[in-house]
Design a protein that fits this description.
Elements lengths: L1 H6 L17 H11 L4 E6 L11 H14 L2 E6 L3 H13 L4 E3 L5 H10 L4 E2 L1
Parallel strand pairs: 1-2, 1-4, 2-3
Length: 123
Amino acid sequence: MDLVRSYFKDFEEFILKDRPLKISQKEKIFLDKILNGGGKKIFVSLHSKWKNKRLKDSVLERFLEKISEKYEVFYFFTYSSEKEKEISKRFFKKFYKNSFLLDKMSFSMVQYLDKMYRSCDIL
């Protein structure tokens, strides 16, 4: 894109307009309910297709334990495949008192979370 713009000497800044997707009332109620609990919210995505981009389960578990010891937190464990779901379930069971296992979410739900709850951390 930059190559074409420079050829045509088109240096005007292009900014995409925000086009929020719609979520259902049921999805909104669900998200509001789980996000209005106490503590700092941390979304934990345990998975990566590249093994060098992923922590060992034991390392991540200890890291989350240390965070839990120091801060009042609430974890949201995510997944996008059946294999990932099993790993996330194990973490959810370990931290069941202060966590929630999020089923696969639609893109509109992810966008809603991003827009409405920017105070959440992503780990």
